[in-house]
Amino acid sequence: MPHRALVAKGIAEFLGVLSHPHRIRIVEELRDAERDVNSLQQALGISHSGVSQHLMLLRANRLVSERRQGRQVFYQLRQPEIACWLMEATRFLEHETEAAQELRKAIGKTRKVWATH
């Protein structure tokens, strides 16, 4: 496979892993500190099994790693820069039409919350 096609395929697979809002939020929740499933469940407002399934996919694709402490499992980003990269990605959303004003407001609020982590 030509090198550009190989790289494009890898990037597409990587973006596919991040293509769910809950997985993006998990990455942001892990931005500055490791977290366990229960704290992620509370932050995301989804089921324990839902968080576990998203973490399993993130772990299988080497975006997060785990650390066990007794029976408790803590997750952390393998490359914390990915959270910064996602923050930068919000800039692409801002360049939509005026009808996207509500989205721009939400982006501003989200940046403030994510930046304080």
Q: Short description, anyone?
A:
The protein has 117 residues and is mostly helical. The protein has helices at 3-17, 21-29, 37-44, 48-60, 81-94, 101-115, and strands at residues 35-36, 64-69, 72-77. 63% of the residues lie in helices and 12% in strands.
What does this 3D model show about the protein?
It is a single chain. The protein is mostly helical and 117 residues long. It has a single domain, classed as Winged helix-like DNA-binding domain superfamily/Winged helix DNA-binding domain (Arc Repressor Mutant, subunit A), CATH 1.10.10.10. Strands 1-3-2 form a three-stranded antiparallel sheet. β2 and β3 form a beta hairpin. α3 packs across α4 and α5 packs antiparallel against α6. The longest helix has 15 residues. The protein starts with a helix and ends with a helix. The mean pLDDT is 90.
* Strand order of the biggest β-sheet: 1-3-2
Unreliable stretches covering 5 or more consecutive residues:
none
Arithmetic mean of pLDDT: 90
The CATH class is identified as: Mainly Alpha
Q: Helix/strand-derived class?
A: mainly alpha
Within the CATH hierarchy, at the fold level, what is the topology?
Arc Repressor Mutant, subunit A
Q: Give the N-to-C terminal Cα separation.
A: 41 Å
Q: Could you name the key traits of this structure?
A:
3-stranded antiparallel β-sheet, 63% helix, globular, 3 strands, 6 helices, mainly alpha, 117 residues, Arc Repressor Mutant, subunit A
What is the topological layout?
Elements: H1 3-17, H2 21-29, E1 35-36, H3 37-44, H4 48-60, E2 64-69, E3 72-77, H5 81-94, H6 101-115
Antiparallel strand pairs: 1-3, 2-3
